[in-house]
Amino acid sequence: MNVTELLRLLQSEHDETAARADHLRAQIDQLTNALTEVEARLAEIATTGKVIDGLTLPDHEPAPTETANVYQRIVTAFNEHPRRVFRVRELHELLGLPTDEPAINVTRSRLGRLVRQGILDQPGRGRYQKRT
């Protein structure tokens, strides 16, 4: 292989690499533009949320959802019986909630959340009581 052939091969590799670099730069430009658009949209959404939050009156409470209503009923039951230790099934019977396993498991999860929030204590496995 002579010097002329080496220079031709080197030039060919240079051209291919330069074309690949141009292609990658174009992709970077496209992704940068897409990212800018998405970040702008996120900012718009955050601003809209702040505006809506600012429009609500301080004493205005949103309408309770079904989940919030169940939480309130649970907390009320513990407030009405502050020293009583409940099992989940007993609580369901007191509140007139379904006693099937899926419903029991959902309430068990809710009670765990109330324990983590410091509203309830868990004096034993599967037992819950109002924190005093």
Describe the protein.
It contains 4 helices and 3 strands, in the order H-H-E-H-H-E-E. It folds into 2 domains: 1-60; 66-130, Winged helix-like DNA-binding domain superfamily/Winged helix DNA-binding domain (Arc Repressor Mutant, subunit A, Orthogonal Bundle). The protein is 70% helix and 8% strand.
* CATH class term of the largest domain: Mainly Alpha
Main β-sheet, in a few words? Answer: 3 strands, antiparallel
SSE order: HHEHHEE
> What order do the strands of the largest sheet run in, or round the barrel if closed?
1-3-2
The name of the CATH superfamily of the largest domain reads: Winged helix-like DNA-binding domain superfamily/Winged helix DNA-binding domain
Q: Based on CA inertia axes, which overall geometry fits?
A: elongated
The domain count comes to: 2
What is the share of helical residues? 55-70%
Q: What fraction of the residues are assigned to beta strands by DSSP?
A: 5-15%
- How many β strands by DSSP? 3
Q: Taking all residues together, what is the mean pLDDT?
A: 86
- Return Rg in Å: 32 Å
Number of helices: 4
CATH topology of the largest domain: Arc Repressor Mutant, subunit A
- What is the level-2 CATH architecture name of the largest domain? Orthogonal Bundle
Structural class determined from secondary elements: mainly alpha
